[in-house]
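Subject: design request, 314 residues
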């Protein structure tokens, strides 16, 4: 008999604006399978494509285990899952992935990395959001409104603002900035006019968010506009984290448990350091937890979770 037929397995899914990651662990929390697919933000790619990407990632994660096994519990954290209508749309599509399926916003996965799931989470990737929970089980959030209404401090916001600065420079309506040449090179274009086709016919949110690397590089090279954009992003992220801490009644003199996620805060160390320095000017900080693998953290955390209580919407 295949050992996988007698073992118990657990699934974590991190569904963001750029990609979907699925991780399966055994009862000891050891990773046994991993899969990746495209975005599962259904407000961006549509419900059908989002569900297809979730299942593709999960099926890839299941491959090492064969076919004759089942998953006892799963925690799916998906971007844009916020309102009752979101749960109503997605829950029936994913309920068969495991015996018990917990569905939350993707930012809530990062709470699994904090002791007692208490503290403040800040995610800055394609989009951005801050979320927190206090010792009384009260949760609140700031940001996460999507690219048209907010997502300040996100990769998309930086990329979009860089594009606007670049075309203003190309017109002569704005100051010169090396952002224009950096973006053209990044997308392998020759002229500013080609940005129209690239943005309106080729670029999705994740593609625009990747332009944030151009902004950070231009900032390192001393470009004043890039420096302004990066500082604005840091200010907005600090504001979001401070807002969540204030709404939860967290004492700024007590160490604030903090979990960080998303490419900007995980991979860009200078950006991360400046964010922490500014936040620390008003709040005493505990050692920040970097949530580099939220799907794995969720798969391990769900082993012990019997119910999500009222702090997480089910």
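Subject: RE: design request

Done. Sequence follows.
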């Amino acid at each position: 008999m295949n050992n996988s037929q007698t073992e118990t397995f657990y699934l974590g899914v991190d569904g963001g604006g750029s990609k979907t990651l699925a991780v399966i662990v055994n009862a000891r929390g050891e990773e046994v399978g991993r899969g990746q697919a495209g975005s599962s933000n259904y407000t961006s790619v549509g419900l059908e494509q989002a569900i297809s990407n979730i299942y593709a990632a999960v099926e890839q994660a299941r491959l090492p285990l064969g076919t004759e096994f089942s998953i006892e519990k799963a925690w799916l954290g998906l971007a844009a899952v916020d309102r009752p209508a979101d749960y109503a749309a997605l829950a029936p599509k994913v309920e068969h992935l495991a015996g018990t399926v917990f569905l939350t916003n993707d930012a809530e996965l990062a709470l699994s990395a904090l002791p007692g799931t208490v503290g403040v989470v800040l995610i800055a990737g394609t989009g951005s959001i801050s979320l927190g929970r206090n010792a009384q089980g009260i949760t609140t959030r700031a940001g996460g409104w999507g690219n048209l209404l907010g997502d300040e401090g996100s990769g998309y916001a930086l990329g979009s603002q860089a594009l606007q600065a670049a075309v203003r420079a190309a017109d002569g309506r704005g100051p010169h900035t090396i952002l224009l040449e950096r973006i053209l090179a990044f997308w392998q274009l020759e002229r500013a006019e080609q940005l129209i086709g690239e943005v309106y016919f080729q670029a999705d949110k994740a593609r625009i968010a990747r332009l944030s690397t151009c902004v950070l590089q231009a900032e390192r090279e001393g470009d004043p506009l890039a420096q302004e954009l990066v500082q604005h992003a840091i200010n907005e992220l600090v504001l979001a984290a401070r807002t969540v801490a204030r709404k939860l009644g967290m004492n700024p003199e007590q160490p604030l448990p903090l979990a960080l996620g998303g490419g900007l805060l995980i991979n860009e160390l200078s950006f991360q350091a400046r964010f922490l320095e500014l936040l620390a000017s008003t709040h005493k900080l505990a050692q920040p937890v970097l949530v580099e693998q939220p799907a794995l953290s969720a798969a391990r955390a769900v082993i012990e979770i019997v119910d999500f209580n009222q702090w997480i919407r089910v």
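The beta strands are 9-15, 20-26, 31-37, 71-78, 100-105, 119-124, 128-133, 139-143, 258-261, 289-290.
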